[in-house]
Amino acid sequence: MIKIGDALPAATLMEYQHAEDGTCATSGPQPVNVQEAAAGKTIALFAVPGAFTPTCSAQHVPGFVEHADQLKAAGVDEIWCLSVNDAFVMGAWAKDQKTGGKVRMLADGDAAFAKATGLTLDLNGKGLGLRSNRYSMLVRDGKVAQLNIEAPGKFEVSDAATLLGQARG
Description:
- The chain is an alpha+beta fold and 169 residues long.
- It has a single domain, classed as Glutaredoxin (3-Layer(aba) Sandwich), CATH 3.40.30.10.
- Helix content is 30%, strand content 27%.
- It contains 6 helices and 9 strands; from the N terminus they run ββαβααβαβαββββα.
- It has helices at residues 34-38, 54-66, 68-73, 87-97, 112-117, 160-168, and strands spanning 12-15, 30-33, 42-48, 78-83, 104-107, 120-123, 129-132, 135-140, 143-149.
- A 7-stranded mixed beta sheet has the order 2-1-5-4-3-8-9.
- It holds the Pfam family Redoxin.
- The active site is at residue 56.
- Thiol-specific peroxidase that catalyzes the reduction of hydrogen peroxide and organic hydroperoxides to water and alcohols, respectively. Plays a role in cell protection against oxidative stress by detoxifying peroxides.
- Residues 2-169 form the Thioredoxin domain.
């Protein structure tokens, strides 16, 4: 399992952004090389078990949208939300959650990033397959500086306020 001091894994995520007028992007999903995108930046990264799921939609994403300006004032360059969903679902969720300009909604469609970090959640018995565990991490220049992993079914340590305190610390 990934730990503080480790580099982010070599993985490619996908991002689908809506045009500024709210219409669908014309170029389709775009690859995001994790190591290249994180190089030289401070990233507030959080992962959720699934887009449009109750806790993720009602608390996790809204908390990061709400605290985006404070996180940036604390030195965070970008905020990333990762989920084992496809890029189109993440794009639709971004529109629903009004994350534009605040949180990058990144798809880990085949769970490659989740598997590489060791932060997977097996929800096969619930019809959801292999997902990402819920967690947050502060990443500095591609390396994990803080890591907050939730126990299954919990939402206590991976919230925006906790990561904000760590970014300020």
